[in-house]
Write a structure and sequence with these properties.
The chain is an alpha/beta fold. It is built from seven helices and ten strands. The strands form two sheets. The chain has a five-stranded mixed beta sheet, sandwiched between helices. A five-stranded parallel beta sheet has the order 3-8-2-9-10, with helices on both faces. Helix 1 packs across helix 7. The termini are far apart.
Amino acid sequence: MSEIATMAQGEAGAIGPGRLVLVVGPSGAGKDTLLQLAQAACIDDHDVVFPRRVVTRESSAAEDNIAMSPDEFRRGIDHGDFAVHWDAHGHSYALPLEINDDIRAGRAVVVNVSRTVIAALRQAYANVVVVAITAPPDVLAQRLAARARHSDGNIAERLSRSVEDASAQADVTILNAGSADYHSRQLVRVIRNESWRE
């Protein structure tokens, strides 16, 4: 599996002053659920942006991505439509180039990414905050089995996957094993650069 981030060309220096909030974590941790709740909580905050990822997989109720075919995705790369793109789990993922304008305007941009692209994003953006959302292994396994998404592949393999990269260390970790509302409030506090514990 190849998970190498490729950044848009032509950017000089780290992009800022806004914050890039990277939400990472294992499959089944509840990242999409917490992101949806956080987005709803920030709906009237124009300084917080939740861009839709571009993915070569159909969108679903749990993951509101922009679906593209592999050919369309390749054309997007060729046209410079993405701020960053990577491949993981048999799919291609990208963040739209417009996030750079939001960050230059001082907004917080909140995105779900692979842990393997954190190092490249920390270099490209001036103010990066990594939020790891996780859950106990038995909870992860239950959630993956319950969603029964074909593209999840081998559940045991997904659960055993790790990233050995110091730059992938989280700045904040949320153990999402209780109330999704409670944990989404923690995430909102991080997004707004407030204390994240209650």
